[in-house]
Amino acid sequence: MLVVTTNAVRSEWRSARRWLALLRRLPGERLKVAGTRVSCARIRDVLLRFPGMHDAEVFGMEDKARGEVPACRVVLGPGTSVGRLHGWCAAELNPVEVPRSIEPVDHIPRSATGKIMRWL
């Protein structure tokens, strides 16, 4: 049986003699980068403080060496460059928190309630 709550997935398996429950966080809230817990919300907050930033989405991207690394999609204003944003992140964040990939997009899709639609 698979049970999905607001911030976790719980998977249960039962047999006549054994019972096993696995609990893990949904992707997107926290990342584990080279053994270090990294908050996507913290990275997003720093990104949104950058001058000329309109919107940002942070997510995990697979990496062979580190397991997972932060990446982001951003909506930048005119005259703002990805290079300057990367430098800002390097100055404001810990080295494991700096996004390895910064993808500029026109808009970030959101639901009617304003939540980021991650599956698009």
Biggest sheet strand order reads: 1-2-3
Any guess at the CATH architecture of one domain? 2-Layer Sandwich
Question: Main sheet, how many strands, which sense, barrel?
Answer: 3 strands, antiparallel
Could you give me the name of the CATH homologous superfamily of one domain?
ANL, C-terminal domain
Summarize model confidence as the mean pLDDT: 77
Distance between the termini: 27 Å
* CATH topology value of one domain: GMP Synthetase, Chain A, domain 3
The CATH class of one domain turns out to be Alpha Beta
The fraction of residues in strands falls at: 35-45%
> How does the helix and strand content classify structurally?
alpha+beta
Could you say which overall geometry the principal axes of the C-alpha atoms support?
A: globular
Could you estimate the helical fraction of the residues in percent? 10-25%
Rg from alpha-carbon coordinates: 17 Å
H and E string: EEEEEHEEHE
Oligomer: single chain
Number of strand segments = 8
> What's the tally of helices?
2
Low-confidence stretches: 1-11, 20-25
